[in-house]
């Protein structure tokens, strides 16, 4: 039966390709949007923290006083209760020439070195390996009663915990929002693809209707983008039907035109030359037989691309009933096992010729037991083709003889004696459908002939 291990991978549908592509694009897009928003939020959070720390600097400065000797003093409550709460995460440090002041919140906390800065200068530093705090440093100058300027540096430090909490909360909300948006977009894409691909599904159904014989052409209104495709398919169908009709008419005309001259030749033979007349008459009979045979084979080898489905079981049952009547005296049993719903997408006469020749030879050269099995080549693709297997309990065919008969270029004569099962016609049909034929030993004891016809 040829390469039984042949495997065809199922192509991915256009709908699923678009869905997967849309999901990938949305995932990448939403991911980039999430990264951009997270980066923007981090910068905004740091800017907000800097503004809050600068406000604390002004509160501390407002609570700071300088004595005549340049000694600093700061009120116990500079205006933010967190500065008075130990370990609150916000710390203040005021550095003068004579002394410094730290907020009560520094209790138990080891602060990093506190450098001074020039009056009027501001510095905002983010945490690094040396300093694990956000730092805002502001330099001012107090004027003493004697007119001297006392440089003072106010430093506010805060841990990153507050900012991290804000970032975690934002990211959690952002993930939920982007996840919800992603689900909505996926559902919207599914809806768009379903509506957008509906005309293609309709074309698929209509083509299936043409294949099954329910429709003759693609009719109805289609989107403007598909009109050239519909027009081309209809032109192809019309052209194929017209070619088929012209071919059939040409065959009929050829048969008719050849029969008439042959009949004239036969009737014009002289009556007094009996021996020559018999020879010529035999030659004319042979010519008529050859013409009929060749026309039949030519018709059998003509295939239509969009042939209607032929119910294999119905055709096989017709053949079985006919052969049971013809070989009623010799048959013991004739079993036909056809896969339910099996269809042959080709010409009905090809199906009848092929199965008829195989069954007829099994009846003729078997010992009364005949079995036919018909099944699809590929259950997942009904249009791929069919496989016919006919077994008999006769003497079979020698391996060397079967190889000779199936060798390319060797053709049988259906009128010759031997195991002639109309092999010429069978091989013509098999070749027309790009199929193959094998002959083996049957478990019934005789020949097992397997034929595969590819219709797609």
Give me some keywords for this one.
456 residues; alpha+beta; Heat Shock Protein 90; 3 domains; five-stranded antiparallel beta sheet; five-stranded mixed beta sheet; 9 helices
Could you walk me through the main structural features you see in this protein, from its secondary elements to its overall organization?
By secondary structure, the protein is an alpha+beta fold. It folds into three domains: 22-165; 224-300; 309-454, Histidine kinase-like ATPase, C-terminal domain (Heat Shock Protein 90, 2-Layer Sandwich), CATH 3.30.565. It has helices at residues 14-62, 161-196, 198-212, 227-267, 274-300, 312-326, 348-365, 399-406, 423-432; strands at residues 64-66, 72-74, 90-95, 100-102, 122-125, 134-143, 149-158, 309-311, 333-338, 343-345, 369-376, 385-392, 436-441, 447-454. Strands 4-3-7-6-5 form a five-stranded antiparallel sheet, with helices on one face. It has a five-stranded mixed sheet with strand order 9-11-12-14-13. The longest helix has 49 residues, at 14-62.
Q: Would you summarize the structure shown here?
A:
The protein is of the alpha+beta class and about 450 residues long. It has helices at about 15-60, 160-195, 200-210, 225-265, 275-300, 310-325, 350-365, 400-405, 425-430, and strands spanning about 65, 70-75, 90-95, 100, 120-125, 135-145, 150-160, 310, 335-340, 345, 370-375, 385-390, 435-440, 445-455.
Taken as a percent bin, the fraction of beta residues is 15-25%
Mean pLDDT: 81
* Side-by-side strand order of the widest sheet: 4-3-7-6-5
In total, the number of strands is 14
Helix content: 40-55%
